[in-house]
Amino acid sequence: MAVSGISPTAAAERASAPPPAGLKQAIEQTVADGFPGVVVYARRGERESKMAAGLADTASGERARPDQRFRIASNTKSFVSTVLLQLEGEGRLSLDDSAEKWLPGVVQGNGNAGKDITIRQLLNHTSGIYDPTKEPEFFAPYLEHQEWDHVYTPREVIARAVRHKPLFAPGGGWAYSNTNYLLAGLVIEAVTHRSAPSEIRRRILAPLGLEDTSFPLTDPAIHGPHLHGYDLTGRDVTRFSPSYDWTAGAMISTVDDLARFHRALFTGQLLRPAQQRELLTTVQFPEAPAYGLGVQRMDVPCGSEPDTKPISAWATDGAGPGSTSVSLATTDGERQLVLAANVYDLGADLKDERPVPQSEGPRKAQMAALCN
After folding, report:
1. What is the rounded distance in angstroms from the CA atom of residue 174 to the CA atom of residue 127?
2. Given the DSSP bridges, would you call strands 323-330 and 112-113 parallel, antiparallel or unpaired?
3. Coil vs helix vs strand at 11
4. pLDDT at 304 over 80
5. Which residues, in sequence order, are bridge partners of residue 214?
6. What's the CA gap between 297 and 164, in Å, rounded?
7. Distance of CA 30 to CAs 2, 82, 153, 175, 180, Å?
8. Could you give the C-alpha distances from 121 to 157, 172, 181, 322, in angstroms and in order?
9. How many Cβ atoms from other residues are within 10 Å of residue 137's Cβ?
10. β strands within 176-227, DSSP E
């Protein structure tokens, strides 16, 4: 379990404040540029603000609101890495354990060898294992046949992955692969003898009071108040089976819940010090991002003047059918931004085309929330 909890009531008692200067204009620009709706959370110290612009549902005309749920996609990965780091802190596994130790025979064939891949390499994407979710044919049941309820099991996706040769030898490079986090979810289950979603609920959602966060397995619907999701043509793609994404990206949340989780995570309230250091230790490969264990360090530009310094932040993001989001927390823990918008065109992405409308609004929102 967590080393120390964060009181849900304490989180609720934080003072509301006017949004940072420029944030309202930034999200309104995002809507004007083609996103139907945007929701946002911003925090400076103990003062937080939440706002929205545009529409949650273009058919009904329902307005976007900050309390509405959305698919957080790969933001899920930071929940998964947190659970595995907690397990290491409890002495139940080591990040240096091989995948083979916990998942015998699962990663083998075509040059893949689970005995050579560590849990750390799964979490920081240096395993070299292939990602079949980047193939157009993988999504054919949904995008070509409109079988929105189609179910892929995690082991089916992994089996498709190991039909391919590794991209590189374990530890020999960096490549983002959802397969890594499906394997990480199976490791959680092998160690705890409980389902990975139940461990996330028990260890993170319940202690933090994240009541609007859920982990659907096969249910293609989003329940409760939510943003509808769209592709670039305006087609509603809200209904979409999350099964293929599982511990790589199936969770649903709100900007407030995601902000509360990341505040607890990045201020060291969920992990022991040794595991906190592991979380924030980034890979060192040319052309690779500064990726840690399910989180990434990035510099947010704070202006175009030559003497304007960027601000360093920890980030997670997510993109999936009809939804794109980012969660940022400055490295000093003083400022946060969580922004979600309701367009992501998976079909365009699979063709290597831009999957969202062109807009400077999200970047301006980051600057407004995080910079002085």
Report:
1. 8
2. unpaired
3. helix
4. no
5. 252
6. 30
7. 37, 32, 36, 30, 33
8. 19, 10, 10, 30
9. 10
10. none
Q: List, for residues 96-120, the tens digit of each pLDDT value.
A: 999 999 999 999 999 999 999 999 9
Q: And the tokens for 191?
A: 């160690």
**Cβ–Cβ < 8 Å for 295, 316:** yes
Which amino acids are annotated catalytic?
A: 74
Q: Within a 10 A sphere around the Cβ of 287, how many other Cβ atoms?
A: 6
Q: How far is CA 302 from CA 15, 29, 309, 317, in A?
A: 26, 18, 6, 20
Per-residue DSSP letters for 258-291?
A: HHHHHHHHHTTSSS-HHHHHHHTPPP--TT--EE
Are 118 and 108 in contact by the 8 Å Cβ rule? The answer is no
Burial 208-247, CB ≥16 within 10 A → b, else e: bbbebbbbbeeebebeeebbbbbbbeeeebbbbbbbbbbb
Q: Indicate whether this model's pTM tops 0.85.
A: yes
